[in-house]
Amino acid sequence: MQIIIINGPNLNLLGKREPEVYGNETFESYFEKLKSKFATIDFTYFQSNIEGELIDKIQEVGFLYDGIILNAGAYTHTSIGIGDAVKAITTPVVEVHISNTFSRESFRHQSYISSNAKGVIIGFGLQSYDLAVQSF
Ligand code: CA2
Question: What span, in angstroms and rounded, lies between the C-alpha atoms of 13 and 120?
Answer without folding.
Answer: 22
